Amino acid sequence: MSKKTYFFLILILGSLTALGPFSIDMYLPGFPAIAKDLHTTAAKVSLSLSGFFIGISAGQLLYGPLLDRFGRKKPLYIGLIVYILASAGCAFTASIDGLIVMRVIQAIGSCAAAVASVAMVRDLFPVKDNAKVFSLLLLVVGASPMIAPTVGGYVTAAFGWQAVFVILMGMGIAILLAVFFWLPASYKPDKSLSLKPKPILLNFWSVLREPQFYTYALTSSIAFSGLFAYVSGSPILFMEVFHTDEKVYGWIFAFLSVGFIGASQVNTLLLRSYRSEQIVSVALICQVIVALTFLTVAMSGWLTLSITIVFLFLFLCCIGFTNPNAAALSLAPFAKNAGSASAVMGALQMGMGTLISIFISLFEVPSAVPMVLGMAGSATLALLVLLTGRRKISHRVEVEQDADSALIH
Fold it and tell me: pTM of the prediction?
Protein backbone atom coordinates (compact mmCIF):
# COMPACT_ATOMS: atom_id res chain seq x y z
CA MET A 1 0.00 0.00 0.00
CA SER A 2 1.49 3.36 -1.06
CA LYS A 3 1.79 6.26 1.38
CA LYS A 4 -0.74 8.27 -0.64
CA THR A 5 -3.31 5.47 -0.54
CA TYR A 6 -2.64 4.95 3.18
CA PHE A 7 -3.16 8.69 3.83
CA PHE A 8 -6.47 8.87 1.95
CA LEU A 9 -7.79 5.71 3.62
CA ILE A 10 -7.01 7.12 7.07
CA LEU A 11 -8.58 10.46 6.11
CA ILE A 12 -11.84 8.93 4.83
CA LEU A 13 -12.12 6.40 7.66
CA GLY A 14 -11.34 9.16 10.12
CA SER A 15 -14.06 11.35 8.62
CA LEU A 16 -16.56 8.50 8.98
CA THR A 17 -15.52 7.98 12.58
CA ALA A 18 -15.64 11.73 13.29
CA LEU A 19 -19.20 12.20 12.01
CA GLY A 20 -20.75 11.03 15.28
CA PRO A 21 -18.44 13.08 17.54
CA PHE A 22 -19.06 16.19 15.41
CA SER A 23 -22.79 15.61 15.78
CA ILE A 24 -22.36 15.36 19.54
CA ASP A 25 -19.93 18.23 20.15
CA MET A 26 -20.92 20.93 17.68
CA TYR A 27 -24.28 21.81 19.22
CA LEU A 28 -23.15 21.73 22.88
CA PRO A 29 -22.51 25.52 23.09
CA GLY A 30 -26.09 26.03 21.88
CA PHE A 31 -27.73 24.35 24.91
CA PRO A 32 -28.83 27.65 26.55
CA ALA A 33 -30.08 29.06 23.22
CA ILE A 34 -32.00 25.87 22.39
CA ALA A 35 -33.56 25.86 25.87
CA LYS A 36 -34.65 29.48 25.41
CA ASP A 37 -36.06 29.04 21.88
CA LEU A 38 -37.88 25.79 22.64
CA HIS A 39 -39.14 27.01 26.06
CA THR A 40 -37.46 24.31 28.14
CA THR A 41 -34.44 23.78 30.43
CA ALA A 42 -30.81 22.94 29.68
CA ALA A 43 -31.29 19.65 31.55
CA LYS A 44 -34.16 18.74 29.19
CA VAL A 45 -32.04 19.73 26.18
CA SER A 46 -29.38 17.29 27.42
CA LEU A 47 -31.94 14.51 26.85
CA SER A 48 -31.47 15.15 23.11
CA LEU A 49 -27.86 14.12 23.70
CA SER A 50 -29.00 10.99 25.53
CA GLY A 51 -31.37 10.30 22.62
CA PHE A 52 -28.42 10.49 20.25
CA PHE A 53 -26.52 7.93 22.32
CA ILE A 54 -29.57 5.62 22.35
CA GLY A 55 -29.86 5.85 18.56
CA ILE A 56 -26.19 5.01 18.05
CA SER A 57 -26.29 2.12 20.50
CA ALA A 58 -29.32 0.48 18.88
CA GLY A 59 -28.32 1.34 15.31
CA GLN A 60 -24.91 -0.28 15.55
CA LEU A 61 -26.48 -3.66 16.25
CA LEU A 62 -28.63 -3.13 13.15
CA TYR A 63 -25.75 -2.23 10.84
CA GLY A 64 -23.31 -4.92 12.03
CA PRO A 65 -25.09 -7.85 10.30
CA LEU A 66 -25.92 -5.68 7.26
CA LEU A 67 -22.25 -4.80 6.79
CA ASP A 68 -21.27 -8.48 6.88
CA ARG A 69 -24.15 -9.57 4.63
CA PHE A 70 -24.10 -6.87 1.93
CA GLY A 71 -20.55 -5.53 2.17
CA ARG A 72 -19.49 -2.24 3.70
CA LYS A 73 -20.60 0.39 1.20
CA LYS A 74 -24.32 -0.20 0.53
CA PRO A 75 -25.43 -0.04 4.19
CA LEU A 76 -23.10 2.94 4.58
CA TYR A 77 -24.90 4.83 1.78
CA ILE A 78 -28.27 4.22 3.45
CA GLY A 79 -27.02 5.37 6.85
CA LEU A 80 -25.49 8.58 5.48
CA ILE A 81 -28.70 9.48 3.61
CA VAL A 82 -30.73 8.95 6.81
CA TYR A 83 -28.23 11.16 8.65
CA ILE A 84 -28.52 13.97 6.09
CA LEU A 85 -32.34 14.01 6.20
CA ALA A 86 -32.44 13.87 10.02
CA SER A 87 -29.96 16.75 10.29
CA ALA A 88 -32.36 18.85 8.21
CA GLY A 89 -35.18 17.77 10.56
CA CYS A 90 -33.18 18.94 13.60
CA ALA A 91 -32.63 22.35 12.02
CA PHE A 92 -36.35 22.97 11.46
CA THR A 93 -37.88 21.39 14.58
CA ALA A 94 -40.13 23.59 16.72
CA SER A 95 -40.21 21.60 19.97
CA ILE A 96 -37.79 19.87 22.31
CA ASP A 97 -39.60 16.55 21.81
CA GLY A 98 -39.21 16.91 18.05
CA LEU A 99 -35.50 17.65 18.49
CA ILE A 100 -35.04 14.55 20.66
CA VAL A 101 -36.77 12.33 18.04
CA MET A 102 -34.74 13.81 15.17
CA ARG A 103 -31.54 13.33 17.15
CA VAL A 104 -32.33 9.63 17.65
CA ILE A 105 -32.89 9.23 13.88
CA GLN A 106 -29.75 11.26 13.13
CA ALA A 107 -27.76 8.94 15.39
CA ILE A 108 -29.12 5.82 13.68
CA GLY A 109 -27.81 7.22 10.40
CA SER A 110 -24.41 8.26 11.77
CA CYS A 111 -23.68 4.95 13.44
CA ALA A 112 -23.45 3.26 10.03
CA ALA A 113 -20.33 5.36 9.52
CA ALA A 114 -18.95 4.42 12.94
CA VAL A 115 -19.43 0.66 12.53
CA ALA A 116 -18.20 0.59 8.93
CA SER A 117 -15.02 2.53 9.72
CA VAL A 118 -14.05 0.19 12.58
CA ALA A 119 -14.77 -2.92 10.50
CA MET A 120 -12.77 -1.53 7.57
CA VAL A 121 -9.71 -1.11 9.79
CA ARG A 122 -9.86 -4.87 10.34
CA ASP A 123 -10.47 -5.41 6.59
CA LEU A 124 -7.79 -3.16 5.13
CA PHE A 125 -4.88 -3.38 7.57
CA PRO A 126 -2.92 -6.25 9.22
CA VAL A 127 -3.95 -7.16 12.77
CA LYS A 128 -0.54 -6.10 14.12
CA ASP A 129 -1.13 -2.58 12.76
CA ASN A 130 -4.68 -2.16 14.07
CA ALA A 131 -3.78 -0.36 17.32
CA LYS A 132 -1.60 2.07 15.35
CA VAL A 133 -4.38 2.70 12.81
CA PHE A 134 -6.93 3.28 15.57
CA SER A 135 -4.56 5.82 17.12
CA LEU A 136 -4.26 7.60 13.77
CA LEU A 137 -8.03 7.62 13.41
CA LEU A 138 -8.24 9.20 16.83
CA LEU A 139 -6.02 11.99 15.50
CA VAL A 140 -8.63 12.75 12.83
CA VAL A 141 -11.48 12.18 15.27
CA GLY A 142 -9.69 14.36 17.79
CA ALA A 143 -10.11 17.34 15.51
CA SER A 144 -13.86 17.19 16.16
CA PRO A 145 -13.81 18.17 19.85
CA MET A 146 -11.19 20.81 19.03
CA ILE A 147 -13.04 22.30 16.08
CA ALA A 148 -16.71 21.42 16.59
CA PRO A 149 -17.55 23.21 19.88
CA THR A 150 -15.46 26.26 18.93
CA VAL A 151 -17.12 26.57 15.54
CA GLY A 152 -20.48 25.71 17.10
CA GLY A 153 -20.09 28.52 19.64
CA TYR A 154 -19.37 31.13 16.97
CA VAL A 155 -22.05 29.81 14.61
CA THR A 156 -24.66 29.79 17.38
CA ALA A 157 -23.75 33.33 18.43
CA ALA A 158 -23.86 34.64 14.85
CA PHE A 159 -26.61 32.64 13.12
CA GLY A 160 -28.48 30.67 15.79
CA TRP A 161 -28.27 27.02 16.85
CA GLN A 162 -30.26 25.85 13.78
CA ALA A 163 -27.29 26.72 11.55
CA VAL A 164 -25.21 24.09 13.34
CA PHE A 165 -27.46 21.32 12.00
CA VAL A 166 -27.35 22.81 8.49
CA ILE A 167 -23.55 22.53 8.63
CA LEU A 168 -23.80 18.92 9.86
CA MET A 169 -26.09 18.16 6.93
CA GLY A 170 -23.44 19.56 4.57
CA MET A 171 -20.77 17.39 6.21
CA GLY A 172 -22.92 14.32 5.67
CA ILE A 173 -23.26 15.12 1.97
CA ALA A 174 -19.48 15.66 1.59
CA ILE A 175 -18.65 12.35 3.32
CA LEU A 176 -21.23 10.48 1.22
CA LEU A 177 -19.53 11.74 -1.96
CA ALA A 178 -16.06 10.80 -0.64
CA VAL A 179 -17.21 7.27 0.19
CA PHE A 180 -18.83 6.84 -3.23
CA PHE A 181 -15.87 8.04 -5.29
CA TRP A 182 -12.74 7.19 -3.26
CA LEU A 183 -13.34 4.49 -0.65
CA PRO A 184 -12.59 0.98 -1.97
CA ALA A 185 -14.89 -1.99 -1.40
CA SER A 186 -12.97 -3.73 1.38
CA TYR A 187 -15.10 -6.79 2.03
CA LYS A 188 -16.83 -9.29 -0.21
CA PRO A 189 -20.51 -9.71 0.78
CA ASP A 190 -21.16 -12.96 2.60
CA LYS A 191 -24.49 -14.18 1.24
CA SER A 192 -24.42 -17.19 3.54
CA LEU A 193 -25.15 -14.93 6.52
CA SER A 194 -28.84 -14.84 7.38
CA LEU A 195 -30.63 -11.67 8.42
CA LYS A 196 -33.25 -13.56 10.41
CA PRO A 197 -33.27 -12.67 14.13
CA LYS A 198 -32.11 -16.06 15.44
CA PRO A 199 -28.92 -16.38 13.31
CA ILE A 200 -28.08 -12.73 13.99
CA LEU A 201 -28.43 -13.20 17.73
CA LEU A 202 -26.36 -16.41 17.57
CA ASN A 203 -23.68 -14.50 15.66
CA PHE A 204 -23.64 -11.78 18.30
CA TRP A 205 -23.52 -14.45 21.01
CA SER A 206 -20.50 -16.09 19.38
CA VAL A 207 -18.76 -12.72 19.55
CA LEU A 208 -19.73 -12.11 23.17
CA ARG A 209 -18.53 -15.59 24.24
CA GLU A 210 -14.94 -14.79 23.27
CA PRO A 211 -13.16 -13.95 26.59
CA GLN A 212 -10.71 -11.55 24.99
CA PHE A 213 -13.57 -9.67 23.34
CA TYR A 214 -15.84 -9.26 26.33
CA THR A 215 -12.96 -8.40 28.65
CA TYR A 216 -11.50 -5.61 26.55
CA ALA A 217 -14.76 -4.44 24.95
CA LEU A 218 -16.38 -4.02 28.37
CA THR A 219 -13.24 -2.41 29.78
CA SER A 220 -13.09 0.02 26.86
CA SER A 221 -16.82 0.80 26.95
CA ILE A 222 -17.00 1.43 30.69
CA ALA A 223 -13.79 3.47 30.78
CA PHE A 224 -14.85 5.45 27.71
CA SER A 225 -18.21 6.28 29.32
CA GLY A 226 -16.24 8.70 31.50
CA LEU A 227 -15.82 10.77 28.34
CA PHE A 228 -19.61 10.77 27.86
CA ALA A 229 -20.00 11.96 31.45
CA TYR A 230 -17.70 14.86 30.63
CA VAL A 231 -19.48 15.69 27.37
CA SER A 232 -22.93 15.54 28.99
CA GLY A 233 -21.98 17.53 32.07
CA SER A 234 -19.59 20.10 30.64
CA PRO A 235 -22.15 22.55 29.11
CA ILE A 236 -23.90 22.93 32.48
CA LEU A 237 -20.61 22.90 34.41
CA PHE A 238 -18.83 25.58 32.39
CA MET A 239 -21.74 27.79 31.27
CA GLU A 240 -23.98 27.61 34.37
CA VAL A 241 -21.58 26.86 37.25
CA PHE A 242 -18.53 28.84 36.06
CA HIS A 243 -20.61 31.26 33.87
CA THR A 244 -18.53 31.15 30.69
CA ASP A 245 -20.17 32.14 27.39
CA GLU A 246 -20.56 29.93 24.29
CA LYS A 247 -17.27 31.04 22.72
CA VAL A 248 -15.15 30.55 25.84
CA TYR A 249 -16.76 27.14 26.43
CA GLY A 250 -15.83 26.14 22.88
CA TRP A 251 -12.19 27.11 23.41
CA ILE A 252 -12.01 25.26 26.76
CA PHE A 253 -13.49 22.16 25.12
CA ALA A 254 -10.95 22.45 22.30
CA PHE A 255 -8.04 22.77 24.72
CA LEU A 256 -9.13 19.74 26.74
CA SER A 257 -9.32 17.71 23.56
CA VAL A 258 -5.58 18.18 23.12
CA GLY A 259 -5.05 15.81 26.04
CA PHE A 260 -7.14 13.08 24.43
CA ILE A 261 -5.56 13.52 21.00
CA GLY A 262 -2.01 13.92 22.26
CA ALA A 263 -2.19 10.77 24.36
CA SER A 264 -3.55 8.72 21.45
CA GLN A 265 -0.59 9.81 19.34
CA VAL A 266 1.99 9.18 22.06
CA ASN A 267 0.40 5.74 22.20
CA THR A 268 1.72 4.96 18.71
CA LEU A 269 5.25 5.59 19.99
CA LEU A 270 4.75 3.50 23.13
CA LEU A 271 3.55 0.57 21.01
CA ARG A 272 7.09 0.25 19.65
CA SER A 273 8.31 -0.80 23.09
CA TYR A 274 5.25 -2.02 24.99
CA ARG A 275 2.30 -4.33 24.33
CA SER A 276 -1.25 -3.02 24.22
CA GLU A 277 -2.11 -5.07 27.32
CA GLN A 278 0.57 -3.27 29.33
CA ILE A 279 -0.50 0.20 28.21
CA VAL A 280 -4.17 -0.45 28.99
CA SER A 281 -3.35 -1.55 32.57
CA VAL A 282 -1.17 1.43 33.45
CA ALA A 283 -3.48 3.98 31.78
CA LEU A 284 -6.56 2.63 33.55
CA ILE A 285 -4.89 2.68 36.98
CA CYS A 286 -3.92 6.32 36.36
CA GLN A 287 -7.48 7.07 35.22
CA VAL A 288 -8.88 5.72 38.50
CA ILE A 289 -6.41 7.75 40.61
CA VAL A 290 -7.17 10.99 38.73
CA ALA A 291 -10.95 10.47 38.88
CA LEU A 292 -11.08 9.62 42.59
CA THR A 293 -8.89 12.62 43.45
CA PHE A 294 -11.09 14.83 41.26
CA LEU A 295 -14.20 13.55 43.07
CA THR A 296 -12.67 14.22 46.50
CA VAL A 297 -11.84 17.81 45.55
CA ALA A 298 -15.30 18.38 43.99
CA MET A 299 -17.16 17.07 47.03
CA SER A 300 -14.98 19.23 49.30
CA GLY A 301 -16.07 22.35 47.43
CA TRP A 302 -12.52 23.32 46.42
CA LEU A 303 -13.04 23.29 42.65
CA THR A 304 -12.15 26.35 40.63
CA LEU A 305 -12.25 26.75 36.86
CA SER A 306 -8.49 26.19 36.49
CA ILE A 307 -8.41 23.14 38.82
CA THR A 308 -11.35 21.62 36.94
CA ILE A 309 -9.58 22.06 33.60
CA VAL A 310 -6.39 20.39 34.94
CA PHE A 311 -8.26 17.33 36.25
CA LEU A 312 -10.31 16.96 33.05
CA PHE A 313 -7.15 17.25 30.93
CA LEU A 314 -5.44 14.44 32.87
CA PHE A 315 -8.54 12.25 32.76
CA LEU A 316 -8.89 12.63 28.98
CA CYS A 317 -5.19 11.80 28.54
CA CYS A 318 -5.78 8.46 30.27
CA ILE A 319 -8.71 7.67 27.94
CA GLY A 320 -6.49 8.50 24.96
CA PHE A 321 -4.21 5.62 25.98
CA THR A 322 -6.91 3.17 27.07
CA ASN A 323 -9.35 3.34 24.17
CA PRO A 324 -7.27 2.51 21.03
CA ASN A 325 -5.45 -0.38 22.70
CA ALA A 326 -8.58 -1.91 24.22
CA ALA A 327 -10.41 -1.58 20.87
CA ALA A 328 -7.60 -3.33 19.00
CA LEU A 329 -7.44 -6.14 21.57
CA SER A 330 -11.23 -6.59 21.37
CA LEU A 331 -11.26 -7.09 17.58
CA ALA A 332 -8.03 -9.10 17.29
CA PRO A 333 -9.72 -12.56 17.50
CA PHE A 334 -12.09 -11.80 14.58
CA ALA A 335 -11.68 -11.75 10.82
CA LYS A 336 -14.82 -13.18 9.20
CA ASN A 337 -17.37 -11.35 11.35
CA ALA A 338 -15.45 -8.18 12.22
CA GLY A 339 -18.54 -6.14 11.30
CA SER A 340 -20.65 -7.85 13.93
CA ALA A 341 -17.83 -7.62 16.48
CA SER A 342 -17.37 -3.89 15.88
CA ALA A 343 -21.15 -3.40 16.10
CA VAL A 344 -21.36 -5.16 19.47
CA MET A 345 -18.37 -3.18 20.74
CA GLY A 346 -19.91 0.08 19.53
CA ALA A 347 -23.29 -0.77 21.04
CA LEU A 348 -21.68 -1.52 24.39
CA GLN A 349 -19.75 1.73 24.27
CA MET A 350 -22.76 3.85 23.36
CA GLY A 351 -25.01 1.95 25.76
CA MET A 352 -22.71 2.82 28.63
CA GLY A 353 -22.55 6.41 27.39
CA THR A 354 -26.36 6.58 27.28
CA LEU A 355 -26.73 5.38 30.85
CA ILE A 356 -24.21 7.82 32.23
CA SER A 357 -25.61 10.79 30.28
CA ILE A 358 -29.15 10.02 31.51
CA PHE A 359 -27.77 9.79 35.06
CA ILE A 360 -26.26 13.27 34.76
CA SER A 361 -29.42 14.77 33.20
CA LEU A 362 -31.42 13.75 36.29
CA PHE A 363 -29.69 16.44 38.35
CA GLU A 364 -31.52 19.73 37.85
CA VAL A 365 -29.24 21.76 40.16
CA PRO A 366 -26.02 22.91 38.39
CA SER A 367 -23.06 21.13 40.02
CA ALA A 368 -19.79 19.44 39.10
CA VAL A 369 -20.38 16.47 41.42
CA PRO A 370 -22.72 14.36 39.18
CA MET A 371 -20.29 14.57 36.26
CA VAL A 372 -17.22 13.73 38.37
CA LEU A 373 -19.09 10.94 40.17
CA GLY A 374 -19.87 9.37 36.80
CA MET A 375 -16.23 9.65 35.73
CA ALA A 376 -14.90 8.09 38.95
CA GLY A 377 -17.45 5.28 38.94
CA SER A 378 -16.77 4.38 35.30
CA ALA A 379 -12.98 4.28 35.72
CA THR A 380 -13.14 2.15 38.88
CA LEU A 381 -15.61 -0.34 37.40
CA ALA A 382 -13.54 -0.62 34.19
CA LEU A 383 -10.44 -1.54 36.18
CA LEU A 384 -12.33 -4.24 38.09
CA VAL A 385 -13.66 -5.71 34.80
CA LEU A 386 -10.14 -5.74 33.33
CA LEU A 387 -8.60 -7.52 36.31
CA THR A 388 -11.41 -10.11 36.46
CA GLY A 389 -11.50 -10.73 32.70
CA ARG A 390 -7.76 -11.19 32.36
CA ARG A 391 -7.87 -14.12 34.76
CA LYS A 392 -10.37 -15.87 32.49
CA ILE A 393 -8.24 -15.17 29.40
CA SER A 394 -5.14 -16.56 31.15
CA HIS A 395 -7.07 -19.64 32.28
CA ARG A 396 -8.34 -20.28 28.75
CA VAL A 397 -4.84 -19.96 27.27
CA GLU A 398 -3.51 -22.45 29.83
CA VAL A 399 -6.30 -24.93 29.03
CA GLU A 400 -5.66 -24.63 25.28
CA GLN A 401 -1.91 -25.09 25.74
CA ASP A 402 -2.50 -28.21 27.84
CA ALA A 403 -4.84 -29.60 25.17
CA ASP A 404 -2.27 -28.90 22.42
CA SER A 405 0.45 -30.55 24.47
CA ALA A 406 -1.69 -33.66 25.04
CA LEU A 407 -2.51 -33.84 21.33
CA ILE A 408 1.17 -33.67 20.38
CA HIS A 409 2.08 -36.43 22.83
Answer: 0.73
